[in-house]
Amino acid sequence: MAFLDIEHLEKAFGILRVVKDFNLGIQKGEFVSLLGPSGCGKTTVLRMVAGFETPNSGAIRIDGKDVVNQRPNQRNIGMVFQAYALFPNLTVAQNVGFGLKIKGVGRADQDIRVAEMLRLIGLPDLGNRYPFQLSGGQQQRVALARALAVKPSVLLLDEPLSALDAKIRVSLRTEIREIQQKLGITTIFVTHDQEEALSISDRIVVMNGGIAEQVGAPFEIYNRPNTKFVANFVGTLNTFDAAVLDPAAGRVSLAGTEITLPQPLVSLTGDRIALALRPEALHLGRFEGREVVLPGVITDVHFLGSVIRVRADVAGASVALDTFNRADTPPPPVGAAAEVSFSAADLIVLGG
Amino acid sequence: MTKLWSWGALLFGLVYFTLPLIGMTEFSLKMRRGEYSFDAYAKVLADPKFQETFSYSVLMALVTIAFGALLVVPTAFWVRLKMPWARPYVEFITLLPLVIPAIVIVFGYIRLYNTSSWLPLTGTAMGTNILLMFGYATLALPYMYRAVDTGLRTIDVATLTEAAQSLGAGWGTILARIILPNVLVAVLSGAFLTFAIVIGEFTMAALLNRPAFGPYMQLLGANRAYEPAALAVIAFGITWACMGLIQLITRFSKHTRAQR
Fold first, then answer.
1. Can you give the residue ranges of every domain in chain A?
2. A145-163: pLDDT as tens digits
3. Strands, DSSP E only, in chain A?
4. Which of A175, A284, A305, B31 could cross-link B226 (Cys pair, CB 3.0–4.6 Å)?
């Protein structure tokens, strides 16, 4: 049995069902991200685990104990909010020590724990500052320390990086992951940013319309999306229209070229299906191991430094492909004819 | 040209407000014929009735403030947090004392709580004091509620409450340690307004026959020439001192210093 078990969770606000039959088991020490667009129900799931919303039905068990009927202040859960939510009237040290004080921890032990937490987040000297004297990134780190100080059984992070600027966001997410691994704390991270979710999670739950569309490791979610929604939401995707020739053998026709897919198809012969490829699976020019070659025309070139993103018209579709920059090979000119190659094994079948 | 008009308007406003004040102050200093003196002030301050009624009203004001804060802060907090739909109704109720005259309230009190009623509060001095305090709290309600509600608007009540809850805090702790300190300046401005109202209130205190400052001022005004003017200047000074205190406390609250 998992450490945190969510079973058949349902939540409706009025007639609107925002979470539908949500199931998830999280192992102790695991970092799981709930990823999805606004309104997909990810924050509602998190708030139900925290106790701020009551589910209409279903169970939430932490370490085998059902917590659905417990109040938020009885659940021993640490939470970090998007808006930091530091208490403006308390200093950094008082904020971090707030939960300890409520628990009745002695003054000396409180001070030791607060100092330990401030060291953990790399702000050992800022204990006497007030929240308004800190930058956004510092405030969020203090909020993290405050949530962790009480040694919660589960850490909940509700879009903690959304209010920060891009550079801080990247460094803080690395820091959060390091601290989480160091303490081995079970964590749920809610985000709408796929890059964030892919980079720091053990597992990702992609949510849409209140349903968990796919649960899996980042590598799996990105490379083997189960549904069209997951494929489109996570990463950039090039889609092609293809006709099914032999569903049992996985043979399709793409712009007149016959391709054999690694898996059989459920569609019927003659059906039109959508095939997709990640930009990095496409290669400019012929390449060993990329058996499918299609002609195309370069329409756009973006030089991004280490990577060159090229757009080309291939098989009636506008596709994006990434190549690494090489000092001896200048990017292709716009309007030039080019060949694009890929491996059939990399094709993702959408709704096939 | 516009600038000239603005200056003109400002000057007019200043004259409109300060001229009567200057006139009154000047008159209050003229008790001794032919020269300026503080005789009227000395007389007022030395009057045992003044000391008695003023200290009574100050005490009543402090009790009213404590009761008002205890009533309004949790109510405004709860309405903001859990019942935002009820805000217009609560606002309407808190505004009622502005449209219902104090005399109606006090007659209602006397009818409901007289010595032959089921709760004979007017039977004892303490009971009447309690009744008067409730009356004062009602009169101060529009100001207290608005001040606290505005204070609550400046903080993220919902998120701060949830943050405190997730750290194990119960409602009492949340109110006392998080919400109240963050709206303290607002509560204090409500408190000083309450103080000013209670110090000057006449109707309720007179009809409940309590020795308050309002009836004393009225009595003095009806019987003396110079002392009422001196008393008015003193009352004005107290009001201004209250305003000054609000400013001072705002400046002293450390965590809000940067926002100003």
1. 4-232, 238-350
2. 999 999 999 999 999 998 8
3. 4-13, 16-26, 31-35, 57-62, 65-66, 77-80, 154-158, 186-191, 203-208, 211-216, 238-246, 251-254, 257-260, 272-277, 283-284, 292-303, 307-314, 317-324, 337-342, 348-350
4. B31
Domain formed by A238-350, architecture: Beta Barrel (2.40)
Q: Look at A88 and B182 and tell me if their CB atoms are within 8 Å.
A: yes
**Fold assignment, B46-253:** MetI-like fold (1.10.3720)
**Are residues B255 and A89, on separate chains, in Cβ contact within 8 Å?**
yes
**Residue B260 pLDDT class (50, 70, 90 cuts):** very low
Q: Inter-chain contact A88–B155, Cβ cutoff 8 Å? A: yes
Q: Which tens digits make up the pLDDT trace of B221-255?
A: 888 888 889 988 888 888 788 778 777 877 766 66
Q: Do B258 and A50 touch (CB under 8 A)?
A: no
User: With b meaning 16 or more CB within 10 Å and e meaning fewer, what string describes A48-58?
Assistant: bbbbbbebeeb
Measured between beta carbons, the chain B residues lying within 8 angstroms of A73 are 165-170
CB within 8 A of B86, min separation 6: which ones?
Answer: B79
The residue ranges of every structural domain in chain B are 46-253
Residues of B whose CB is below 8 A from A135: none
Contact yes or no for A79 and B164 at CB 8 A: no
What residues in B contact A79, CB-CB < 8 Å?
Answer: 162-163, 166
> In the CATH scheme, what architecture does the domain A4-232 have?
3-Layer(aba) Sandwich (3.40)
